[in-house]
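Entry 12.
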Amino acid sequence: MTVEYLIRLENISLTIGERKILRQVNLTILPESVVTIIGPNGAGKSTLLKILLRLQQASHGEIHRKPNLEIGYVPQKFTIDPLLPLTVEHFVRLGKKPKQYSLDEIFAEVGISQLKNQSMQMLSGGELQRVLLARALLGEPELLVLDEPAQGVDVQGQSELYQLLASLKHSHGCSVLLVSHDLHLVMASSDQVLCLNQHVCCSGHPEDVSRHPEYLQLFGEGLSGNISDGLAVYTHNHDHCHDTHGRVIKSAGEQHG
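Predicted 3D structure (C-alpha cells):
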C-alpha cells in the first residue's frame, strides 16, 4: 500500500519530571505541502521538532515515517568558531555531495551566489539562514524542517525568506515544516497552520478559515484581511481560553458559567 504521508505523529506526549511539555499532539505532513507551527514561547514547538527528527524520545505516542525519508534541517541557532577559516562554499560542501542540482544552482536559487567566497564569520543573520538553507537543499530532501528561520532577520528579509520557502514545494517537490513563535510571521502560503501550546489548540487551512467567526472573535476583523497580506489565519476550536501570553487560564464553560 502506498504511503500518502511523509510523517504522521499520533498522540505525542512528553513529560519530564512533573512537567508536561507536550500533550497528545497529532500532526500529519503530506507530500509537497507547507505546514507552519506557531505558538508562544515555551509551547513545545522546538521539542516537537526534536521528537519528529528522532533527536528526543516521546513519553507516549507513535511516529510513522515514509520509508527512507530524506529530511533537511535548518536549526534555530548555529555558531561557527571565529578562528576557523571557512568560506560559505566550503561550509556547504562539508559532508554533502550535490545530487540533482549543482552547488551553483542551489546558491542562485537561495540568493547567495555573491557570498560563495565569503567568510562564514562575516555573514549577517539573514545571510546565514540562506546558507544553512542551501546546505539542507543540497541533499534533495523530501521534507525541509526549519526552526524559527526568521530569528535575527529584518522584516524585509523575513518576507523574502518566506516567499522562497513557499516556492520550494514546487521547485524541489518537497514539503516544508516551519516553526515560528509569532502569529504575524506565519506564511500566507501555508497549506496548514497549527497552533501549539503544549497541546494542539488551533489548526486549519488559511484560505478555509480566514473568515471563521472564532478567528474574528479572537483577533478582530482587522487581522482577518486577505491571505496575501501575509497574516496568519487558522481555526481555533478548543475548550479553554488563553491570556495574552498564550497561557491556558480557564475552560470555555468556566468563562461563560
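Annotation: The first strand starts at residue 7 and ends at 16. The radius of gyration is 19 Å.
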